[in-house]
Amino acid sequence: MHLSSTRNPNNIVSFEKAVLNCMPEDGGLYVPCDDVDMSRWILYINKDTSFQSIAGALTSALINDEFSPIICETIATRAFPFEPRVKHLDDNLYALELFYGPTGSHKDFGISYLVSCVDTILLFQKKQAVFVDVTTGELGASLARELRHAKKIKAVLVYPKGTMRGLKDSDLIENGGNICAIEVDGTEEDCHKIIRQVFNNRPLVEKFGLTVANTANIGRLFPQTFFYPYAFSRIKSEVCTDIYYSLDAGNYSNVVAGLYSWKYSLPVKGFIVPATNNLTLDVSGDCTMLDSMIPLLEREKANPADPSNLERLENVFSEWSLLMKSLVFPSHVTDEDREVACKELYMKYGYIADSHTSGAYAAAKKQSERICGDGVTVIIARDDPSFDSVNIRHYLGEAPEIRDELAGLFEPFSQKKAPVEFYAAFDVISDTLANIAHTA
Fold first, then answer.
1. φ, ψ for residue 90 (rounded to 5)?
2. Residue 189: its pLDDT value, please?
3. Greatest CA separation found in the chain?
4. Could you say which of 21, 28, 45, 192 is the most buried, measured as most Cβ atoms within 10 Å of its Cβ?
5. Whole-angstrom Cα distance, residue 419 to residue 185?
6. What is the pLDDT of residues 190-206, one digit of tens each?
């Protein structure tokens, strides 16, 4: 698999390099530059095909020039002892639930795959890598769980004072784990600035093998392409018509992943999203991206701490500009629309949806004329509804129950040492990296 930077198509690297050194020096983001026809394989998958098998087959097809089929299968098998679920709500509506991983977040899929992939690469190279990320919850909890089994990866997690959860004392490096948690006496934005400062220091990045575990890393986004073939495999025997996927835009990673799946020949009629300030409608009612008005080279570098995948979305648009207007359908969705959608899902189907899933359903309803006749919609539910208890209680009058296996994730994590002042955080991270390298 070859990848190039969104800001320099001639900057072509291998999948391995893009994962381990995830931020191109030109300030862009890595994107695939190979087209792979998976249509024959897609015809043969069915509801008995496991998520592991789908992940292994796609990994092998897309990066077979770097890894053998056995290694690809090993990466997928290690990564996915869990899988999504598809719920049939009515004849024309399904829900793809991505919250049955160990921490109840869709991030589990990307992080588990990324850790499995990076650990495998590093075992062959006999090297070590360090994830350096900002977290206020889900990412830290998911990464902590996966790194308990990693052999060649450490992580430095930076978080605003009092926001960490999901970690155990045994996860910390000083207790034999793989994580150094740095609490900052500041805001989340302060933490983002610190991480940008770290990744702007190229000698530091190269010396300690720094990368990120968020979707700025293509290795974290890539496994999200597995969601769509998996959903298709579960409904293909029941559906003989157009399939639409409706999802909250988020940081656009799932939208981009869906479009990559389409490029790999997945049968799909379109992707429906609640409109955002950047992904919205033009005067003709077609999808448009306002960021594209600013030339890439006049923008700031891509943010390694708080990624927006708009630049990757633009990259797809620039390559397939005419088709994209027939594949991505934004709808303006208000808070009131989300509330009405949440209540309707509960009253009609007994389905409890968070505000993101409710927004996806509301957007699909506004596209009802497009999804005419026997057209089928798959709404994507990213996270366990208990993560959004406040909004759901407001919408429905009661909060969803927290699954037993997730209960501990809501408990705050605290350290005995005092939080680090913002101005001192970069030096603390540098010293931490030096200590990690010394003890490796």
1. -155, -170
2. 95
3. 64
4. 28
5. 5
6. 999 999 999 999 999 99
Cα radius of gyration rounded to whole Å, the chain: 21
Picking from 256, 64, 217, the residue whose alpha carbon sits closest to that of residue 133 is 217
What angle is formed at CA 163 by the lines to CA 160 and CA 167, rounded to 5 degrees?
115
> And the tokens for 210?
């720094």
Write down the residue that tokens 């949440």 correspond to: 342
Strands 93-97 and 85-90, how do they pair? Answer: antiparallel
Q: How many CB atoms lie within 10 A of CB 317?
A: 22
- Residue 182's pLDDT is 95
Residue type, 311: E
- Within the chain, which residues score under 50 in pLDDT? none
Query: From the centroid of its chain, how far is CA 291?
Result: 21
Please give the pLDDT value at position 440: 64
Assess contact for 140 and 174: CB atoms under 8 A: no
Question: What Å distances lie between residue 163 and 105, 160, 364, 388, 409, CA to CA?
Answer: 17, 6, 34, 16, 12
CA gap 99, 384 in Å, rounded: 5
Residue count (the chain): 440
Angle of helix 69-79 versus helix 107-125 axis, rounded to 10: 140
Tell me the pLDDT tens digit for each residue of 333-344.
999 999 999 999
pLDDT score for 220: 96
User: Quick check: 112 and 214 in contact, CB under 8 A?
Assistant: no
**What DSSP assignment string belongs to 283-330?**
TTS-EEEGGGGS-GGGSPPP-SSS--THHHHHHHHHHSHHHHTTTEEE
Q: Mapped to the 3 state alphabet, what secondary structure does 9-55 carry?
A: EEEEEEHHHHHHCCCCCCCCCEEECCCCCCHHHHHHCCCCCCHHHHH
* DSSP state letter for 97: E
Task: Return d(Cα 143, Cα 141) in angstroms, integer.
Answer: 6
Tokens of 204: 């530091």
Dihedral (CA of 18, 20, 25, 28) sign: positive
Task: Read off the amino acid at residue 235.
Answer: I
- State both tokens at 102: 């160990």
Residue with tokens 């940008």: 196
pLDDT for the residue numbered 137: 81
